[in-house]
Design a protein that fits this description.
One of its GO terms (cellular component) is nucleus. One of its GO terms (molecular function) is SUMO transferase activity. InterPro entries: Rad60/SUMO-like_dom (IPR022617), Ubiquitin-like_dom (IPR000626), Ubiquitin-like_domsf (IPR029071). This is Ubiquitin-like domain-containing protein. By secondary structure, the chain is α+β, with helices and mostly antiparallel strands. It has one domain: Ubiquitin-like (UB roll), CATH 3.10.20.90. It has four helices and five strands; from the N terminus they run ααββαββαβ. The chain is elongated.
Length: about 110
């Protein structure tokens, strides 16, 4: 047998050339679905509860500032915790995996160990 018999036939269909314009993902003007709002409860050491409704992608700094303003506290004197882990103001509810109805603890900063 010659090499011509082993090579693919000229009659075999080739894959059509890809059109680069058609293969690009379409861009939509819709915003991501991450604008979902959740309800969070902030609880203080004396069991005071304050409820907030925020978007999952909003930095928690807004919630922290609003809580401190409502309670008449300085934000630097309060520590916010989620499941015992300190929350930094730049994080979002989505970053921390917070769900609707979750609780954030607000603890007064303690200086010293006596």
């Amino acid at each position: 047998m010659s090499d011509a018999q082993h090579s693919p036939s000229k009659d075999t269909p080739k894959e059509p050339a890809k059109d680069p314009v058609k293969d690009e993902p379409t861009k939509t003007t819709e915003k991501p679905v991450n604008n979902e709002q959740i309800n969070l409860k902030v609880v203080t050491q004396d069991s005071t509860e304050v409820f907030f409704k925020i978007k999952k992608n909003t930095p928690l700094k807004k919630l922290m500032e609003a809580f401190c303003n409502k309670q008449g506290l300085n934000m630097s004197s309060v520590r916010f915790l989620s499941d015992g882990v300190r929350i930094t103001p730049d994080k979002t509810a989505s970053d921390l995996g917070l769900q609707d109805g979750d609780v954030i603890d607000a603890m007064m900063n303690q200086v010293g160990g006596f």
